[in-house]
Amino acid sequence: MRVLLVDDEEEFVSTLAERLSLRDIEADWVTTGRDALEICERVSYDIAVLDVKIPRISGIELKRRLQEKCPDMKFIFMTGHGSEANFEEGAAETGDKFYLVKPVRIETLIERIKEALQERGKGA
To answer: How far apart are CA 121 and CA 118, in angstroms?
Structure first.
């Protein structure tokens, strides 16, 4: 499984990628939507974990653009703006049920990645 992490907080996203790698999950990271679009031209990802609020291209707009290039890619959104109580609202905005509030627990992220990829296997 190969994961792309997109978050403008470089220390956070690089640490998250390192923690996933320690659990034998291939993870690349970028800090801008533009970089995400560029790397997806060269590398195929199973899933992208996107911050909802990144500069210039929102996570929601980035998802739309990535889906055009990679229709089989799955998505998980994260945000540092909100609480668990905002889950349903955020999920409704993104059209996804995989929506996490920062700080993200690595175990929870891995569970959501597996759930999203299992849905892809079911044709979802």
So the answer is: 5
As a dihedral over the C-alpha atoms of residue 12, residue 99, residue 86, residue 18, rounded to 10 degrees, the angle is -10
| Structure confidence at residue 18 (pLDDT) | 97
Give the tokens for residue 33: 């939507």
Q: Are 74 and 31 in contact (CB under 8 A)?
A: no
Task: Yes or no: say if 116 and 76 are a contact pair by the CB < 8 Å rule.
Answer: yes
Please tell me the distance from the alpha carbon of residue 26 to that of residue 1, in angstroms, as a whole number: 6
- CATH numbers and ranges of domains, the chain: 2-121 (3.40.50.2300)
Residue 110's CB is within 10 A of a number of other CB atoms, namely: 16
SS3 45: coil
Structure confidence by residue, pLDDT tens digits, 65-117 = 999 999 999 999 988 865 444 445 555 555 566 778 888 899 999 999 999 99
Q: What's CA 81's distance to the chain center, in Å?
A: 16
Closest CA relative to residue 111, chosen from 98, 123, 92, 122: 98
